[in-house]
Write a structure and sequence with these properties.
The structure holds 3 protein chains of 3 kinds. Chain A is mainly α. Helices cover 65% and strands 0% of the residues of chain A. Chain A is flat, with a radius of gyration of 24 Å. Chain A starts with 9 loop residues before the first helix and ends in a 10-residue tail after the last helix. Chain B folds into 2 domains: 185 residues, D-Maltodextrin-Binding Protein, domain 2; 208 residues, D-Maltodextrin-Binding Protein, domain 2 (3-Layer(aba) Sandwich). Chain B contains 18 helices and 14 strands. Chain B is globular. Chain B starts with 5 loop residues before the first helix and ends in a 5-residue tail after the last helix. Chain C is mainly alpha-helical. Chain C folds into 2 domains: 37 residues, no CATH class; 243 residues, MetI-like (MetI-like fold, Orthogonal Bundle), CATH 1.10.3720.10. Helices cover 70% and strands 1% of the residues of chain C. Chain C has a two-stranded antiparallel sheet with strand order 1-2. The longest helix of chain C is centred in the N-terminal third of the chain and has 32 residues. The chains are: A mainly alpha, B alpha+beta, C mainly alpha.
Chain lengths: 282, 446, 315
């Protein structure tokens, strides 16, 4: 890091420009399709498929947004979704990291066999377990409540358990041992050392969890009956109609629904994954 | 490797033991277990999206007042039959808590009838002296089994040809007829119009197409019928697939050749609705097929859009009409209210459903009053009503027609994408694969 | 020797070679108990029920009928579509998984440098992963449209007449691979987290030793990131093989079954054809296949996955 603060030499400048060019080109590829979504959301239905495509609508119809959003009680759906997402996120962060700690930094009999079972639960297609699961929740009296959506998160999610396990395994054991010698309990090690060291991966879990439950369509569809309990993802799915699709409304609603996710991501990644740890391209 | 190997075997056994213990806690309840429901509440499942969202619910809102003692619980399930509704409906059925009234695709009805799961509405129809002649006769016949009637129409939805009138006038081509019994507008007329409507640039690249060729099952099946072919020997009591008979093969060949032999149609798109709308709206396609659900796309166009019938051929004129039923499960605790709801739906609610929801409607009288008279484009809306009145070709009544459709479509695709140019080859293969399935799906005898 | 032990002995798991401490075992079981409880309460029964149902004929709406091995016999011997759909699913996965791992890694490394606008770039690359479901499927139908789609319009600039992507038996699988690649930024966040865990002193030491950036990537970054890459590989296999939504909405398996991925075929049997018993058999064959593949990958891990926490375990 000796060159830091002294100014950039020619090679560093070239490599920086190189990185910018690559990132900018990639950004265009990523953003072009999204641009189509935005322009479609602002077109009248009869202009959606003009050829050659209008990259910006000739006639901008801002009313598409209020019109589409007023077709369903999206404010209510937003509150329902926010509640479910926050509850799931808390459960997944807390429980998955506890379980993952046992699978990575503790040594005990049956650890690896049980871990196979954890992974295996992700491998059976949900289509065939759906009905039995519905019956389980019916016996628990939880149909048409948020419980079937939230409860599983509080038992640990295999995807996050696996992710956290992999991350925890990259920490050196010496730290734990030193802490134990200093009189720290094993759980204390988890709470005071492992978790604080894992901020980036916990941020990743939070972002993933938030996004997954925000977009999840299938479980709310199956377990909720009362339309007042519907979520944003369900509301969005209404726009893929049985009788034709209103492309502009669908795009408008999709963009509005994803907006909170963009904001959450922007700030979460800033907070959790600060960026420069090393200067890799000198 | 110092740890001994006994660990994980014991672990597995332990896990297995616990799992089976957990399994013992639950047992799958039988279908039709008694429902703990309020006697007065009647639940209904629909699958509406825009522009229908909220409209059906609004139209049914006065039901509670019209039938004191009944209370409507309306649920709209997002995603349509394919992308959510069926999953939810079947899950509810399997768990023994189905709604009291629900809509199903017509292809699912035979399985429900075979398993004797639906309430016979005939006693209620007779008691009320309810007039069924206001609905397409074949739809009612499809809902009928051994004298009982097990459904009421949710909507009647005809497919018509949408055409760009300006393009026809400019090309001097004969437009699709709006009169069902018109002696003109034959298959030859259709072909001649296509020739006039197809245009190429100086390099021979197409810039304007006459018609659309899609894999949409109801459209190619209509072309089969126009040439005198049939899918099966008898739609109500099918025993074999007849798609390899001359009329059927000729119809499919004619249809596929429109694209691959004559270049009248653009290249295939994965999603017919999107591709054809794009071309149609930009004045590069003269004709395509759709139902009334496409009306909103053609309310503000720079050209005039009108509706017309399919041409007539050796088999006469043909069409397809969707006729999904609303059904009531046998296990319902509120059969009277369910029947009242069906009556209310097809009666007082229908005006709002047609005028605000954009559906074609169920009874002929209501269609005449509200659907045909809608002044917004496209023109000739009575074409769809005519088609519903002359509907002659219901889906084969088999428990597995959905599966048969999947098999047929995979083969038809080969024709549509030009992998196979000979319709006979495709038809023979369909018959070979489908006949054993017909045997499997037969469930009643004539 | 059970398969699990085989894998363990191969070192695929973190190598456990010291004696167990009683207190640690008790604490471990206490810490995994939430998952065990959830498994027994919510997951085990549905899994077992589907296994049992795979020996039944069940149309969902009536009582199941026992048919022994008939569903499995049909799957392996009389119905050609399961193996066809498994084949195209594997082909798709073989292309998609490596591409997504490599691209995800490259993007993450680029976005782990000290450049301006990092947060904005990261958000841009993550955007496609945020979008899901129908809107994305429709968006890509438009992109792949043969006559007016974005992709073919772009290709025309270079004088190339693109294929009818989703309407072509040959191009439909590449189209889905491209589509998955678009949302590669979803995995970025996991790589970034992994990159943060690499101690900077390693790079400083390497710099002093005169290692160039290529050497640093191959000697430090990749080995230290191997647990993360391993995670992406395993979950990539599990979830890429389960590709469903895209084909379900965009092509419905077509044209001519060219995109009939395994789960779409399974879904058709379960919720369109009233054959839940057969669907369950399909699911369990799939389950076993994925499980075996995962175990094999775990067995390879000892050759290339480096776990800091286990490296000094033998002392």
């Amino acid at each position: 890091m000796s060159s830091k603060g002294v100014g950039l030499n020619a090679r560093q400048i070239i490599s920086k420009i190189f990185v910018y060019v690559i990132l900018a080109l990639g950004s265009i590829v990523v953003l072009l399709p999204l641009q189509w979504m935005i322009s479609t959301s602002l077109k009248p239905l009869s202009h959606v498929f003009r050829f050659p495509p209008e990259f910006w609508p000739q006639k901008v119809v801002w009313e598409n947004y209020p019109n589409a959003l007023s077709q369903l009680p999206f404010d209510l759906y937003f509150l329902n979704t926010a509640f479910i997402v926050v509850m799931c996120l808390l459960g997944e962060l807390i429980v998955s990291s506890i379980v993952a700690y046992a699978f990575s930094r503790l040594r005990w009999r049956g650890r690896n066999a049980l871990f196979i079972v954890v992974l295996a639960t992700m491998m059976l297609p949900r289509q065939v377990t759906l009905i039995p699961e519905f019956i389980v929740f019916r016996h628990l009296g939880m149909i048409d409540t948020f419980w079937p959506l939230i409860l599983p998160s509080w038992f640990g999610n295999p995807f996050y358990i696996f992710l956290l396990r992999q991350y925890f395994l990259t920490h050196s054991r010496e730290l734990d041992q030193a802490a134990v010698i200093d009189g720290c309990s094993r759980f204390g090690v988890f709470w005071r050392i492992t978790l604080p060291m894992s901020k980036p991966v916990l941020g990743a879990v939070a972002i993933f969890s938030f996004q997954f439950h925000w977009n999840d369509f299938f479980r709310p569809l199956i377990f909720l009956l009362d339309q007042d309990k519907y979520t944003l993802a369900l509301g969005l799915r209404f726009f893929q109609g049985t009788y034709g699709t209103e492309w502009n409304s669908l795009m408008a609603v999709s963009l509005v629904v994803m907006l909170p996710l963009i904001i959450v991501f922007f700030f979460a990644q800033k907070h959790f994954i600060q960026g420069v740890v090393f200067t890799g391209y000198k | 490797m110092t740890n001994k190997v006994k660990l994980s075997r014991r672990d597995f056994l332990r896990m297995a033991g616990m799992s089976s213990l957990a399994a013992g806690v639950y047992t799958i309840p039988g279908v039709g277990s008694v429902l703990a429901q309020d006697d007065q509440e009647v639940t209904i499942f629909f699958w509406d999206g825009p522009p229908l969202i909220g409209i059906r619910e609004k139209a049914l809102a006065p039901f509670d007042d019209a039938y004191p003692g009944c209370k409507l619980n309306f649920t709209s399930v997002p995603g349509g039959p394919a992308a959510g509704y069926n999953d939810k409906l079947f899950t509810s059925l399997a768990a023994g808590i189905p709604p009291d009234v629900f809509i199903i695709e017509i292809g699912l009805l035979p399985q429900f009838l075979k398993d004797d799961l639906l309430l016979d509405l005939k006693p209620y129809i007779d008691a009320d002296d309810y007039d069924l002649s206001q609905f397409p006769e074949l739809a009612i016949e499809a809902y009928t089994h051994e004298g009982g009637i097990y459904g009421m129409p949710d909507n009647v939805a005809s497919i018509a040809i949408y055409y760009n009138q300006d393009m026809f006038e400019e090309a001097g081509a004969m437009p699709p007829t709006a009169q069902w019994d018109d002696e003109g507008w034959t298959v030859d007329d259709f072909f001649n119009s296509c020739e006039k409507l197809t245009k190429h640039d100086a390099n021979g690249n197409p810039i304007q197409w006459a018609c659309d060729v899609t894999g949409w099952d109801k459209v190619w099946q209509t072309w089969v019928r126009i040439f005198g072919g049939q899918l099966v020997d008898d739609p109500f009591f099918p025993t074999e697939c007849t798609l390899n008979e001359p009329g059927a093969v000729e119809g499919l060949q004619f249809y596929a050749d429109l694209r691959w032999e004559h270049g009248f149609a653009p290249r295939p798109e994965a999603m017919a609705e999107m591709g054809t709308n794009a071309l149609m709206q930009t004045g590069r396609l003269a004709m395509f097929y759709s139902g009334s659900w496409a009306f909103p796309n053609y309310r503000e166009t720079d050209f005039t859009v009108a509706l017309g019938h399919y041409p007539s051929g050796p088999g006469g004129r043909a069409n397809y009409v969707y006729y999904y039923p609303l059904v009531v499960p046998k296990t319902t605790q509120v059969p009277e209210c369910a029947w009242n709801l069906l009556k209310f739906f097809n009666g007082p609610a229908m005006e709002t459903i047609i005028r605000e929801g954009g559906l074609q409607g169920t009874s002929f009288a209501e269609q005449e009053k509200w659907f045909v008279t809608d002044p917004l484009p496209p023109a000739n809306k009575h074409v769809m009503l005519d088609a519903a009145r002359h509907f002659v070709a219901p889906d084969p009544v088999l428990t597995n027609f959905g599966e048969i459709t999947q098999i047929m479509q995979a083969q038809i695709d080969l024709l549509m994408i030009g992998e196979e140019r000979d319709a006979k080859v495709v038809c023979d293969e369909i018959v070979r694969q489908v006949n054993p399935l017909i045997a499997e799906g037969q469930w009643r005898t004539g | 020797m059970s398969l699990a032990q085989f894998v363990k002995n191969q070192g695929g798991f973190a190598n456990v070679s010291i004696g167990y401490k009683r207190g640690e075992t008790v604490l471990a079981w206490a810490m995994v108990s939430p998952w065990v409880a959830g498994f027994l309460l919510l997951t085990a029964f549905p899994m077992l029920a589907s296994l049992v149902l795979s020996f039944y004929k069940w149309n969902i709406i009536s009582a199941p009928v026992y048919v022994g091995l008939a569903n499995y016999h049909k799957l392996f011997f009389t119905d050609p579509l399961p193996m066809h759909s498994l084949k195209i699913t594997v082909i798709f996965s073989l292309a998609s998984i490596p591409l997504n791992i490599v691209f995800g890694l490259v993007i993450a490394m680029l976005l782990n440098t000290n450049i301006r606008g990092l947060a904005v770039f990261r958000t841009i690359y993550y955007l496609p992963a945020i979008l899901s479901g129908v809107a994305v499927a429709i968006l890509w139908q438009w992109i792949f449209s043969s006559d007016f789609g974005l992709l073919n319009t772009a290709l025309r600039i270079f004088g190339i007449e693109g294929p009818a992507w989703l309407g072509s038996k040959i191009w439909v699988l590449p189209a889905f691979v491209i589509m998955r690649l678009w949302s590669v930024g979803g995995g970025m966040i996991i790589y970034l987290a992994g990159l943060q865990a690499i101690p900077t002193d390693l790079y400083e030491a390497a710099e002093i030793d005169g290692a160039n950036w290529v050497q640093r990537i191959f000697r430090i970054t990749l080995p230290m990131l191997s647990p993360t890459i391993f995670f992406q590989l395993i979950t990539g296999v599990i979830f890429t093989m389960q590709i469903f939504t895209e084909t379900f909405i965009m092509t419905d398996g077509g044209p001519a079954n060219a995109s009939l991925f395994y789960l779409l075929y399974l879904y058709r049997q379960a919720f369109q054809n009233f054959k839940m018993g057969y669907a369950s058999a399909l699911a369990w064959v799939f389950f076993i296949a994925i499980l075996l593949l995962t175990l094999i990958l775990f067995a390879t891990a000892k050759f290339w996955v480096y776990y800091e926490a286990e490296s000094e375990g033998d002392n």
